[in-house]
Amino acid sequence: MTTTRKQELRQELRARRRQLSTAQQRQASARLDTRLRQQPCLRAAHHIAFYIASDGELSPRPTLLRLARQGRQCFLPCISGQRLEFRRYRPGQTMKRNLFNIPEPPARRSLRRHPQQLDVILLPLVGFDAKGNRLGMGGGFYDRTLGGLKQKRRPLLIGLAHEFQRLNQLPVQSWDIPLDAIATDKGFYWIKRRQRR
Q: Tell me, what DSSP letter sits at residue 166?
């Protein structure tokens, strides 16, 4: 698949998810939360990274709020140069907007956690395939951030997407980070078996 074709796919899938109504997005988020509630890996996790949905992304907000209220340590990705850092999120806290206009916890007074110290990272997808390959927005932030982590100490990586974002096959680049599972509004798919904590 050429770079041009990948860009075309990004545009098509992003346009399709932006066409969802607010009600459809809310329903998809609620169905996602139901799927995530059923996963032992999330029930056992203490340090979980989420994201604030934008551009029609499937939103993990119901799960984020539920787990934060249960006292779990929830983190959000924040842009730091060409990488991401994960800062603690608390419901109701003041947020600041990054260069993509996405809310982030402020750098000051926010507990940071290195990716290897997280149990689970929930990350957004533009597209995915059955082998756990991920089509992101193209900025490479997650790949650069997670690329240097050792496999044994790496957090569980669960991509979140609407079911219609599934593709037959995506090409794999040497820098691409494979997912362990994908959760959609219609299913939960383990990609490979890992020892679960």
A: B
Q: Mapping DSSP to helix (H, G, I), strand (E, B) and coil, where does residue 76 land?
A: strand
DSSP, residue by residue, 31-70: HHHHHHHT-HHHHH-SEEE-----TTPPP-HHHHHHHHHT
DSSP state of 110: -
Topology adopted by domain 3-190 = Rossmann fold (3.40.50)
Distance CA 107, CA 95 (A): 10
pLDDT tens string, the chain, 197 residues long: the values are: 567 777 888 899 999 999 999 999 999 999 999 999 999 999 999 999 999 999 999 999 999 999 999 999 999 999 988 899 999 999 988 899 998 899 999 887 668 999 999 999 999 999 999 888 898 887 889 988 988 776 667 899 999 999 999 998 887 777 778 899 999 999 999 997 443 43
Give yes or no for a contact between 108 and 38, defined as CB atoms under 8 angstroms apart. no
Residue the block writes with tokens 């998810």: 17
Nearest to 164 by CA among 61, 63, 64, 57: 57
